[in-house]
Design goal:
Mean pLDDT: 95
Structural class: mainly beta
Shape: globular
Number of helices: 0
Helix content: under 10%
Strand order of the largest sheet: 1-2-3-4-5
Order of helices and strands: EEEEE
Strand content: over 45%
Number of strands: 5
Length: 64
């Protein structure tokens, strides 16, 4: 099973969004993340890069 940790804009601890993500859905500029416990997080943005062997995904988000 391949699980990932998802980050906003860059892979740093303070930018971590959700760990153990098993599903990522992108629709209408919103990225929906679901972890193995069924928790959901929604982030406005897009997938910047995904390292599936390294278990990391970085999202590009809009500036606040």
């Amino acid at each position: 099973m391949c699980l990932s940790t998802v980050y906003k804009n860059e892979k740093t601890p303070e930018n971590e969004v959700l760990k153990n993500v098993m599903r990522i859905e992108c629709e209408g500029g919103v990225v929906t993340l679901v972890d193995i416990m069924g928790r959901e997080a929604r982030v406005e943005g897009e997938v910047l890069c995904a390292d599936l062997t390294g278990g990391t995904v970085v999202l590009r988000t809009k500036a606040s």
